[in-house]
Amino acid sequence: MVADKITAFRKFEKIHPELQAKARKQENVSFEILEKAVKSFEMNRLIFEELDYYEEHKEVLGNHPKLRKLKMMQDSKLYDRFQALNRRNNLRTYISRDTKALKKMKLGKEKDAFAYTLQGFIEERNYLEENFKLNGE
Q: pLDDT 10s per residue in the chain (137 long)?
């Protein structure tokens, strides 16, 4: 994670002077350069939030894709069988509802974020069914 954070920061740091120079000259900046800068900055920020949260609370926040499954596993360890069953049933409802909504959405950042959340629900449901052996219930 720390290596990913440093890499993202260095990518942003490399692009930033070019962006500033073009802004001073009031030149147009290509979409690719802006996209690379924003993605690098967002990744750096996301990892920073994860590390900062962990330092303060001694648990994973789970917003970074690499840590989402770890957070899900930590949270599910707090469930008893009944709570896991309830959570799985709620996830089934969310998945059904959100799959329909996703099909109606137009392409874009919101749809990507929505699909990412939906995929998290599916992964959590599958994990609960496997871990608590809930398939027949």
A: 678 778 888 888 888 888 888 888 888 878 888 888 888 888 888 888 888 888 898 888 888 888 888 888 888 889 999 999 999 999 999 999 999 999 999 999 899 999 999 999 999 999 999 988 887 66
Residue listed under structure tokens 């219930």 = 137
Residue pair 5/26 in contact by the 8 Å Cβ criterion: no
Burial class (CB within 10 angstroms; exposed 0-12, middle 13-18, buried 19+) of 108 = exposed
Burial category of 128 from C-beta neighbours within 10 Å (exposed 0-12, middle 13-18, buried 19 and up)? buried
Q: What are the domain boundaries of the chain?
A: 1-67, 79-137
User: How is residue 101 written in tokens?
Assistant: 């909504």
CB 96 within 8 A of CB 121: no
